[in-house]
Amino acid sequence: MTEAPEPLTSLLYAHTPARGSDTWQPLLDHANGVAERAECFAEALAMGQIARVAGQLHDLGKANDAFQRYLQACHRDPTRKHNTVDHKGAGTLAVRELRAEASAALAFVIAGHHGGLHDQPELKETLKQWASATPRGLSIPGLGPLVATEELRLPSWAREDRRNLEFYTRMLFSTLVDADALDTEAFWNADLAERRMREAPSVADLADTMTAQQSAIAGGDESPVQRIRDELAAACLAAAPLPPGFFRLTAPTGSGKTRAALSFALEHARANGLRRVISVAPYLSITDQTADAYRALLGDAGILEHHSDASRHDEPVAGGEDPDVIWRRLTTENWDAPVIVTTAVQFFESLFSNRTSKCRKLHRIAKSVVILDEVQTLPPNLLVPMLDMLRQLVAYAGASVIFSTATQPSYERAPELNILPPITELSPDPVRAFAALKRVAYEWPEPDEQRDWEEIAATIDDFPQVLAVFNTRGNTLEVLDRLHDPAPLHLSTLLCPLHRRAVIAEIKRRLTLGDDCRVIATQVVEAGVDLDFPVVLRALGPLERIVQAAGRCNREGRLAESGRMIVVNPAEGGLPPGAYRTATDVTTMLLRKGSIDPDDPETIAAYFAQLFQRTTLDAKEIQKSREKLLFEQVAHDFWMIPQDGVSVIVPYIPDGQSSSPAHELRKEVLDRHRWLGFLPRELRERVQAYTVTVRKHVIDRALASSTAEQLTDDLSFWVGSYHPMLGIQLDIATRNDTWIV
Predict the structure, then answer these.
(1) What per-residue string of b and e applies to 237-271 under the rule 16 or more CB within 10 Å gives b?
(2) Residue (of 664, 663, 683) closest to 673 by Cα position
(3) Residues 69-78 pLDDT 10s
């Protein structure tokens, strides 16, 4: 067996042999391999030379006796944890000494290539410590000359604006950490690296498939709805040769936006040499639905559905596993696929993260077409940094962005948000499309009219098939308590996902058969769930939410007359604080001014203009932190969902079973976590189906009263009651909590 050198010789190593091998990876090979990959990845961002230097120097600190002895110790006794030796300092100091324009960005990137990007003050302090402790004059024998200092120039846009420099550094970081991970994987696990390289169809191939599908669909149905859909798809195709930029797709529910947006994206990518399409949706239900629609149109190959945190450690890939499953698991790490379907949380929190695992994928967004579905759901308090990041992706990373929704926000009318270049509308005539597809008649309350729960329940009882949507999950329970229907249905996040899917299946069964079907729900049904009721009742709330609820009313236009969309103002109803309450106040203000026409895009634009005026659009001052190059601070402050939510496994019993599979999951979670220290992906996915999210103070009380059992740091098991209709049973104070869904 070949031993690593001791004392130091001219032959240096980057990594110990893989299990079952006696081959060490030379440091020179790793430095060159990472440099070549990083340079290739960075070409789309016009930072290839600088990325190459980052790759050459990122592991310079391994070129010393201390680190080489550390590697030997790890190899001799792999079961023992050895005191590590820092290897980031030497490369960081080396790029600082280059005195090039790109030195600061390179220093951030190399210093953070394992632990994540630092805040600037922390990096400065760390550099002082490294300067006094790191051996100087280190080199990697055989490494070619570095790029000349004069070639390590930043582009003018990165020199002129600190936030642009921050964006540049993020993208440079992404190219390095992805290149480092892939080169290391290729050495340690060649079989896994080969499985990752499975050939996927190109964007051009998928565009051809989409064209064939469009031809097959066209001309089959001559209904007015289908004509609108065909017109929209044709207009999007006609606009595809336009250069990259910002686009809007404003069209009513049921007009074929998903198909039209994908058709435009693929042809636009082909026409402009873009590399992939990334569809971003606000909810898991929409990503599931979108991925299914894409597969129906394009087939399964090349479509990656990614809506979970893939940054945790998983169990090794088993040799006998399906190659498609393996490819998808690996591709979630860096999005090397032609079509990505993901969530807004995954997309934006990655863009504002400082962690290596989340940032690996960022350089893949360059030269991509990003479809932001239901764009109106982006949180207003984060809109300034989000739109600015999108601006940078388009201006400096060659991306295109599509804002797709029936309720289009009017960013141009808010001075703080007027930071985007002109946005091109893809829909040929939104006003005519909304008029042609008008399938719902809205019934609004008088400005001061309120109804108590008894009155609202009585109204629901009057209709055999009705969907009633309320602002909080506590409100749904208040109405359910007062209904006279012996078998109503309930949908909210008090039910675990598997339970919700079963309820949705039962809703569709009853609607198809014409049976009574009264459903009491939260906004969990307002997007991404294809339901079609003759009557929808909605508690007064944000206007765009009301419009989304109306999308479940006479959805397919089968009624002889318009569907009924009844808006009520609950006298006792709670409202979530923050942007949701502000949006409801704006809706109320418009109602007092006169009738509201949600089918008029101008009404929606005026609503959003008012909402943006009343909202702090960068509540966490993310932009100031970006200007100061505070990468850790930005990652800490940027989050799109409540951070005090805790996951709890509930003992839901599926139909046809006598006991809950959750009890076996509980045992498996305890066993696997005890032995591995983490939960493998496959187990996490199974657990997710039985999980409900509650506030931390709720689970703390439940643990204290033995109503819940702690399984891991972030996962508990619900020992208390779980109702077959109502879901997890919480105390009165908690059930009235103002959680939205």
Answers:
(1) bebbeeebbbbbbbbbbbbbbbbbbbbbbbbbbbe
(2) 683
(3) 999 998 888 8
CA distance linking residue 239 with residue 424, whole number of Å: 9
Residue 142's closest CA among 29, 25, 310?
Answer: 29
- Least confident among 32-36, 58-62, 328-332, 443-447: 328-332
Q: Which amino acid is at 623?
A: Q
Say whether pLDDT at 487 is over 80.
Answer: yes
**Model pTM?**
0.89
Of the candidates 736, 718, 738, the one whose C-alpha atom is nearest the C-alpha of residue 727 is 718
Q: Is the dihedral of CA 71, 72, 73, 79 positive or negative?
A: positive
What pLDDT score was predicted for residue 642?
Answer: 67
Residue 5 has pLDDT above 80, yes or no: no
**Mean pLDDT along residues 498-513:** 94
pLDDT digits (tens, 9 = 90+) for 375-384: 999 999 999 9
Residues with Cβ within 8 Å of residue 129, at least 6 apart in sequence: none
Are 40 and 33 in contact, with CB atoms under 8 Å apart? no
Angle, CA 666 vertex, CA 708 and CA 313 arms, to 5°: 110
Query: Within 13 Å of residue 507, how many CA atoms lie on the same side as its CB?
Result: 26
Q: Cα–chain-centroid distance for residue 635?
A: 15
Bridging pattern class, strands 368-373 and 25-26: unpaired
pLDDT of residue 252: 87
Look at residues 321, 344, 403, 202 and name the one whose alpha carbon lies nearest to residue 640. Answer: 344
The pLDDT of residue 346 is above 80: yes
Contact status, residue 168 vs residue 395, Cβ threshold 8 Å: no
Sign of CA dihedral 125, 131, 134, 137: positive
Beta 276-281 vs 517-521: how paired, if at all?
Answer: unpaired
Of 587, 534, 541, 535, whose CA–CA distance to 559 is shortest? 534
pLDDT at residue 218 in the model: 62
What's the mean pLDDT in 176-189? 92
Q: Enumerate residues 6+ apart whose C-beta is below 8 A from 677.
A: none
Residues 6+ apart with CB under 8 A from 616: 381
The Cβ of residue 223 has, within 10 Å, a number of other Cβ atoms equal to 9
DSSP letters spanning 632-660: HHHHHH--SS-TTEEEEE-----TT-SS-
Distance CA 440, CA 596 (A): 13
Structure tokens at 481: 């308590």
